[in-house]
Amino acid sequence: MWIGPTGGTFPLVSVTNNAVVSAALGYVEANPAELEAVRDLVILSLLGPRITLRHTLPAHLACRAVVVTPDWHLLQVDDAVRSCWQLPGGHIAEEDSSLLGSTLRQLRCLTGIDPDALRPESTLPLDVDAVPVEPVPSLAEPEHVHYDFRYLLHLPSRDLVAGDAGLRWVPVDDVPGRLGTKLRRCSRDAPALR
């Protein structure tokens, strides 16, 4: 329950397994060659407990922001716990009512970027990936899998992000893997679309 501005209480509307299945199937429709990447996620979502909860094992969802600027640089954050650079984002909160909304909330918390400054490319993720996560004893997390839903968000200028040692901008040409391939394709197609 949450308390509204006039004092009334309302039930929390959190992301359901059905919403995850819908997003995953929409993603597969747009990326038919990637059915294998989401098949297990769909099965777990249909048959298991809430896939959006952080403690759901052997896998659960995470949402990540793929923030790019007009000069096609990608924002990354320093993950001090895992000692690596990664896309901003993470676990879905109980109060999140959509996957894209979770991504925007987490981005704001991690970077201070106002969601109103961003233009989402789509309500569907640009990329979905099953990412093995090593155990993190300090967080009492066993080995598990994150199904990362990665949303493409356009930011008009890097100046909208405060200078922070925990943030960096990377040219999309330097982004490896399937995500890098998709971003390079988007950057080539961008002049024709905008």
From TrEMBL:
<dbReference type="InterPro" id="IPR015797">
    <property type="entry name" value="NUDIX_hydrolase-like_dom_sf"/>
</dbReference>
<dbReference type="InterPro" id="IPR000086">
    <property type="entry name" value="NUDIX_hydrolase_dom"/>
</dbReference>
<protein>
    <recommendedName>
        <fullName>Nudix hydrolase domain-containing protein</fullName>
    </recommendedName>
</protein>
<feature type="domain" description="Nudix hydrolase">
    <location>
        <begin position="58"/>
        <end position="192"/>
    </location>
</feature>
